């Protein structure tokens, strides 16, 4: 449970129709395996104690009595466990028969959750045997079946974890999800962050894809974890086939999924602190009301007539099996990655197109260095001019070599501009910078921040003044990762009239340029883009060697690997994780790539710089939001420039 992770399982045992003893033994066997794996919430299929396909055998008291004995037997095996378990069972109450989830913990059946929506169409015939739940309650006396201490209720209930208040578990059964207004909507309004669905969904062509989308979308809509557990091998194949399709989802992401037609246990970990963070952040998400346990007057399936029960969990560290991508901003699937890169380019270029049209700019002016960021910004400028049906010559690309410019980057800048057909200008700023150093009394051999920033600010001055010359606007090139670290010269490359890369992290910039190179039709353009991709990231502000070919300054040697900083940015800022949790996930994701002490070092660097450099982000130029993370002071991120990082830095070492 450390850091909010709870291990959960969807279990599909082998069953035999109407053979309760066989089914109970198989359920208990899987529960033992779940206990060995550290599972805290385990869900079994709908009516799994008897089998979903018993048909008119559900009218037989012998089967119903045996099912009650079976559920009590299962409960007793959990006496020395804190696992919360749900199994499907038919329950007699109020003179009717209900299709229920029996919720079990600590050796007792704690509650029976009845199914609300009964399918009675096509191959389904549930209304012949069961009554739909309409808000009625009943006490189920299990004393004759061996449970003596507690009489469980039959009613809609959510279970609240005493140790982890963010963990609130609700239950629905199969069709309750498939209807237009799912039961889980009301459970979430009542505070449920984990929905468990006990299902017997038969398999037909194409249904697995729809089921997967349904579970994913519902978990996203509710900002919840979702366990979907379906019946499998052993159900009657008289008229249907069941595939045991189990799915575990979290806020729209599929964490784990079983193969069709393979009974077994599907396990993953759901992060309930992450879900609670997102719900707090979404202002339109309804708050769960204060509960009046005596009031049941607000109507069927209103959040105020869903009972709340408490359950306990023993605290401990949850071993992680789910994967955390090293590059969370980048899809792992090639086709999806290409599609995203294409969409990002469209978003960037349409944003810039609007700004050019609105300002009536005759040109756009961009500083081109031969590096990745300025390359991407230039490609976006070209696409924007294409959308406006204007010539590429309306783009003025300016390269401004100085003391640290290498022959490679200078050459690539010119080749790139020539291949794209833009207007290319070179302004050597060396003399101007030297004059400035003389004016302010700075020694050329003092390669301090004055030496570096003097060049960056001179370049920005040149771009702004050229823009005035050509009735243009300056397009910024800095990316999201640089903004997070404050790796920009204030009023230097920090400033522009529109920042097209402002919400693109460095790791993603590389893939977008790669995608453009892979899909362009010009061999010359492709070759220069590939060479730019192979060039180390550098501000090129310190003098080169005498040959002018070797860089003496590499960004990642100074501030750390961008793949680490983008990981820290995603989990620490986007999701608000504590630094200690970010560190844990980074060590898990990058195991074998970086020693622990290296991750600690750069994580401290990230938080120290993120806090100290907020003043630069507080006055950023405009730039469209592209992804889920942006640091615009007018958009997603509002932070005081004088906030103190002490709390976050201390948490890294705890």
How does this model look, in words?
It is a single chain. A hairpin with a 2-residue loop joins strand 3 and strand 4. The chain is built from 20 helices and 20 strands. The protein is α/β, with parallel strands linked by helices and 654 residues long. A seven-stranded mixed sheet has the order 13-12-11-10-9-8-15. A six-stranded mixed sheet has the order 5-4-3-2-1-14. The longest helix is centred in the middle third of the chain and has 26 residues. About 2% of the residues have low confidence. It is elongated, with a radius of gyration of 31 Å.
Count of helical stretches: 20
The major pleated sheet works out as:
7 strands, mixed
Give the strand order of the largest sheet, numbering strands 1, 2, ... along the chain.
13-12-11-10-9-8-15
Q: Catalogue the unreliable spans.
A: 290-299
Q: What structural class is derived from the secondary structure elements? A: alpha/beta
Count of distinct strands: 20
Strand content: 15-25%
- Overall pLDDT level: 94
Detail the topology: elements first, then pairings:
Elements: E1 5-12, H1 20-36, E2 41-43, H2 61-76, E3 84-93, E4 96-105, E5 108-114, E6 138-139, E7 153-154, E8 157-161, E9 168-173, H3 175-178, H4 183-189, E10 194-199, H5 207-222, E11 225-230, E12 247-250, E13 253-257, E14 264-271, H6 272-281, E15 307-311, H7 334-359, E16 363-367, H8 372-388, E17 395-399, H9 407-420, E18 423-426, H10 430-440, H11 449-469, E19 472-476, H12 480-485, E20 498-499, H13 506-519, H14 523-533, H15 555-559, H16 562-574, H17 579-589, H18 596-612, H19 614-617, H20 646-652
Parallel strand pairs: 1-2, 2-3, 8-15, 9-10, 10-11, 16-17, 16-19, 17-18, 19-20
Antiparallel strand pairs: 1-14, 3-4, 4-5, 6-7, 8-9, 11-12, 12-13
